[in-house]
Amino acid sequence: MTARVTACLSRIAALTLSLSMIAVTLTGCWDRTEINDLAIVLALGIDSPEGKGILLSAQIYSPRQSGGGSPSGSSEGTASGTTIVKSANGSNLAEAMSRLQRKLSRHVFWGHSEAVVIGQSAAKRGLREYLDFLLRYSQFREHAYVYVSQQPAKEILAQLPSLERSSAEAMREMGIMKLGARVTILDLAKSIEGPGQSAVLSRLKIPPPEEGKDKLASIPYIRGLALFKKAAYIRTITEPLSIGMLIMLNQLEDIVFSVQPDNNSKGVVAIKPSTINTTLTPRIRNGVWSIQAHVKARGDIVLNTTDLSLAAPNQVKDIEKLWKEKMTGIVQSAINLAQKELKTDFFGYAAEFRRHYPKQWNANLSKWESIYPNIETGLQVDVLIMRSGKSESPQGVPDETIIHK
Amino acid sequence: MTKSFRGPMKRMPFHRQAHMQRGSAPSPILSPHLKDNVTALRAIYSEGSDVTFHTFHIHQAVEAVLIFHSTLCDTELLDRQILGPLIAWNPDSLLIDAAAIAGILPISSSTIVATLEEASLSISGGHPLLLLEGSSCALTFGLSKSEHRNVEEPTAEATLRGPREGFTESLAVNISLLRKRLKNPNLKMVSISIGEYTRTTVRLAYLEGVIEPSIVKEVMRRLSAIETDGILESEYIEEWITDQPKSPFPQMLSTERPDVVCANLLEGRFALLIDGTPFALVAPVTLFSMLQSAEDYYQHFIMSVFVRWLRYLFYILSLLLPSAYVAITTYHQEMIPTVLLLSVAKAREEIPFPALIEALIMEIAFEALREAGVRLPKQVGAAVSIVGALIIGQAATSAGIVSAPMVIIVATTGIASFMIPRYSAGLASRLLRFPIMLLAGTLGLIGMMLGMIVIVIHLCGLRSFGVPYLSPMTPTSSGLWRDVFWRSPIWANRNRLRGRHNGIKSGTPIIARQSSKK
């Protein structure tokens, strides 16, 4: 390096340094925000009370831990009290957000919202407005999990579960554990805007409080699925239909199936699947569109209240057969619901066709609405019981009653 | 220190006068008359001097004078090996000269001097001077004696495994420590004396045939250009001869380990041994060699690779950690994992200062503590720094003045800076931490990056005796990476300097081939 460049550089360095020195003293010139000045939003809730306007609620972390007041003003002692809920009205989300800021003495910081809860009332208005805002405003995280709630979203946020730091944390953990459909803001937008034009969201419910316990101390849990067609809410489904739906979505993880062997109506055998894997194979033959859905399940027997010893292979085979029938029934009813009843492509048939038959897909793009309900869905379920558990014969019954073959 | 208060040239040493006169007139030569010489030397060593003038007669006939610093030379040997034989000597003729005397004395080191300057230099250097009546030459003897401590373990560069010997303040001892390790005639030690008053002997050590000869030439040129009154420590020399003395990054390595010096000589570098300090200077160096410890080569190579990477990581941490904390917590909160942010928010809730001010307070307090600990006596130092750290860490946190995460950050930074094996290399990161912190506090991560860019540009332009400071990264010579990014086993290190002195040119390291730019 020549001396001139060095001199120039050192001058630049000196200038930068002195400027930043000056800036340190002129604190008004910084755009910094100390953590102390932030209201960190952990989850946001969207409601639409009486179908008019938007009620935006934010679950805000309260670092002082002095027991956050509940939104309704109830002053009962709370379970953990690390969060408070603030909400504001507005004709749209952005307006509600700016009103919310005016109610708080700290900068509302949305960058850490782990969960978005859309109340059923707001979900009925359609998801478009919310999605646009959540994906446009720079602070929101695209990987926040989205839920629909039976009760108003504000109530979900107001829960202060004793197990987790906040209900937002609980919702995030439930999303990671795949207790329902694991859908982030980005997934939701992609599935609505994608060829399927539909979405499936988990539905949260607050259980009634146990007797003598604080009503805010219960953990919201996932119960059922909310179905959307083109951003519009159409239906809520619960078990067993929702299980079939999750199997077809390849999202089911934690579940137990119980079957009743025919020859022994006294008890049940419960199977906990370790893996359930669904593949969709599209096919166009002679202008006939069809989909082959292949469900592969493997599982272990976790409970056996029948008298079968399960040591004999044919007994396990029988149980496998029953399990297969059960799963086939559940999945088939979900397929029927989607194809025949709701005529909505929840399972991504369209994406499969687009990937495998791009030419035919493009040619029939406009006719997809009419093609979809008539697609033949062939369902094949393969099940395999890997282990019959720690005990081979049923426990707690005299040996002579056990059926050994 | 030689003192000479003569005429109007007050406070100017004799040597400088002689030096100045060199241009116009030659230095006064010794006269054949003993009296004249003695008078001249007495004038130099007049007031406040501890020089002894001992007059005696050889064979009771020829007058002779021994002039010496009784504190600097071994008087016992002087009496026994010189004075005794001379008095008892029965010469064939009375026309004796210095050369003849050197032949009969039982002493291995004697030199004939002809000028007054040389004579006074040798007296000041502790070598007794013998003047004879009727001879225009004088004789000096290598009987100087000085106090020095024993060879001890180097305190600033301790290793778990490896030689325990360290340099001492005595140049002769240091040279012997080097020669003991490198038994090769190609180990050259060029002597040069620097400092008008101190006349400090500096030895330029290098392995001939291994080092690039132009580097030696360049060092000699820079060393001879030094004009100073005194050299008391290696830093005096370093500041005179480094390529860019204003850079906070050291461009020479100072070490008190003879094994480190030997290793560097073997890699084609040179070393400067300076009389009076246990620190030797080694150059040319790169940033990466400043982050290497002798121990890297004394431990299993896998362990060394691990430690080396740990060191690189912590070097960067020591420079950037507080800045990154300040930048991210004040500008980029979305970058912190949620749970961590909540913990930080809880810890910071009661803190009255902005993160930048908090960081500056803590870093300055830490640096002060560290400096206090270094300067205090060993026994007190440790106690004080522990108490100080406890008070700052514990009390400040519980009083709500400083947040606990900041204490963790500052403590980690402190540990990180202690991991740098060279104290001088650590100084750069300690110093540059503050401007980067200011940049981070005002501009966030962009400011931090700007600071980094300025530092990298500076490093790219830096050279140590012609060798780019960031080599072998830039300019890239991937062959040398095996000793930078990992440490290949000793037997696999092809970086051996297969004797250039044997006429084989291949295998010489690129590092030594870079020619000097200046």
TrEMBL record, chain A:
Annotated Spore germination GerAC-like C-terminal domain residues: 224-389
Signal peptide coordinates: 1-23
PROSITE patterns listed in its UniProt record: PROKAR_LIPOPROTEIN
Subcellular location: Membrane
Pfam families given in the database record: Spore_GerAC, Spore_GerAC_N
Source organism superkingdom: Bacteria
Domain Spore germination protein N-terminal residues, every copy: 31-206
Lipid bilayer topology: Lipid-anchor
Keyword Membrane: yes
Primary subcellular site in the record, as a coarse category: membrane
InterPro entries: GerAC_N (IPR057336), Spore_GerAC-like (IPR008844), Spore_GerAC-like_C (IPR046953), Spore_GerAC_C_sf (IPR038501)
UniProt keyword annotations, A-Z: Germination, Lipoprotein, Membrane, Palmitate, Signal
Family from the record: Belongs to the GerABKC lipoprotein family.
Name used for this protein in its record: Spore germination protein A3
Organism whose genome encodes this protein: Paenibacillus plantiphilus
UniProtKB/TrEMBL annotation, chain B:
Coiled coil feature spans: none
Superkingdom assignment: Bacteria
TM segment ranges: 270-291, 312-331, 407-424, 436-459
Keyword presence, Secreted: no
Stored InterPro entries: Spore_Ger, UPF0353/GerABKA_families
Keywords, in A-Z order: Membrane, Transmembrane, Transmembrane helix
Keyword Transmembrane helix among UniProt keywords: yes
Family: Belongs to the GerABKA family.
Name used for this protein in its record: Spore germination protein B1
Species in which this protein is naturally found: Paenibacillus plantiphilus
Taxonomic path: Bacteria, Bacillati, Bacillota, Bacilli, Bacillales
